[in-house]
Structures are given as structure tokens and as C-alpha cells.
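INFO batch 0412 | record 1 of 1 | parsing
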Amino acid sequence: MAEDPRKPEAIRKAKKGGGIRPDIATFGGIAAAMGGILGGLILEGGRIRDVTQITAAFIVFGGTVGAMMIGTPLSTIMRAMKRFKDVLFERSMDADSAVEEIIGYATKARKGGIVCLEAEAERIQDPFLRKALNLAVDGTDLQELRKMMELQISIEHERAEAEAKVFEAAGGYSPTIGIIGAVLGLIQVMKHLSNIEEVGHGIAIAFVATVYGVGAANILLLPAASKIKARAKRELEMRELVVEGVIGIVEGLNPKLIRSKLEAFAPPGDKKKPKKEKAAAAKVAAPKAA
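INFO prediction complete | emitting C-alpha cells
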């Protein structure tokens, strides 16, 4: 079946499922960090197997998970694990596409009344926008509509913050667990003080747990918490864009005024110039013929 050309471009993109892609910054950052650390180790004359210790990994990661489970409700931990995909993958949150979609609805509502959007609202892929537009079509009071949608925004943002704090907490626990692992290793070393060579080798192995704990905290756990917070903040801004757009539609504002208000949500440098403005800018920038 052919796709309805009247549907907004943002809806057609969502149906195609092309809005999620691997986060190049995350994978590139992990590769750069590991490359720098292991590369430095090799340049210093070490070997990768010097820091490959299953026992140390078991102590650090097992202890960290245990501490997380003690200090955080299990339901929050499970949500945080699901949220981790936001660190590895990024969803397309294009403010320009969202603005164009809302302007399309505003134009139709201005011509045929907001009730004509009832059928359109049922086909919206974004649950938040669908809910807001359905409330508008049902004649919900403006103030009540805003309160309901802002309450949902607040709850979703608080959940995201709680999930990010799970990784922050893990980033605080893992270095300490690493020290515990190092101390346990040193206890074993003390049992063989008669053999100096074995003592030196044992001390080197003991400190691998510290490397694991500090490395996991600063390369993975704390950066993951920061990225989850950044994603949540951007999603909050997109939610606010939707609320302001739907409120503008209900108020019957001119689509041009709605566009001017919503363009403030586009990040600096992401605002697209209309084709006429681009052409004019290019004409001005072109050097005059001699």
C-alpha cells in the first residue's frame, strides 16, 4: 500500500524506524580511552595480559553490582539497565522536523477547526504528542491541558534522573571495591614473603583490581550517567516544544507565530534557513565579478 503523502514527514520517518542509530561519540570515546590506556601500557614495556585478571574483574564488578542492589531499589536498577541503551544509541530528536509536524497540524486546524485533527491524532507515532493533541481535540481547558502534560514531563524527567544516579552510584562504589580487591590480593602475597620474586609478581596482580575499579568508574559508569542526563534534558526540551505547539494550536494562533515561538527550542546552529534566505545569503556572499 502506498504511503499517504499528506502525512507529515516526521511521521513517515518514524514509521520507517530510521530514528535510532549507534552513538558514534560513545563508541569512539571507549575506543580512544582503551587505546590510550593500553597503548601507554605497551609503550612502557608492559603487556596486555598484565591487566587481564579474571579474579580482579569478578571482585570489582560483582562487588559493585552488590553495592548497587543494596543501595537502590531493584525496579530502579532494572529501568537503569534498559536506559543504558541511550548511551550506546541515539534517537533522532530533530526540533525542525517536530516544528514542521506541529505547523502542519496548526495549518489544518486553522482552516477546518481543531476537531478536524481527531483522525490525524490517532495516527501520531509519538505517544506524548498524540496524548496532547487528543486532549486538545476533546476540548480540555488550556490550563488543565498544560498542567497534565507538564506533570508527565516532570515525572519522566525525575525517573531519568533516578536512573542516571544508579550509574553515578556505581561509579562511586567501583573504585572502593577495587581497593578492597587490591587488599585481598596483598593478603595473599603476605603468605609468600619467603619468595621475593613471587611477592613482586603478586603485588603487581593485586593492583589490577584497583585499575579495574577506577577504570570502570571513569571510562564507563560516570560518563554513562552524564550522557543519560544529557539525553533526558534534550527530551524534556522536545516535550516542552510539543506542549507549546499544541497550546498555540488550541489558542488558534497563526502558524507563523507558532513557528517563531517553537524555533527557540532548536539548538544553536541547527536552525535551518528557508530556501529563499539561503539563496539570498549565497548571493550576498558571492564575490562580485571584476
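INFO post-check: The first strand starts at residue 20 and ends at 22.
INFO record closed
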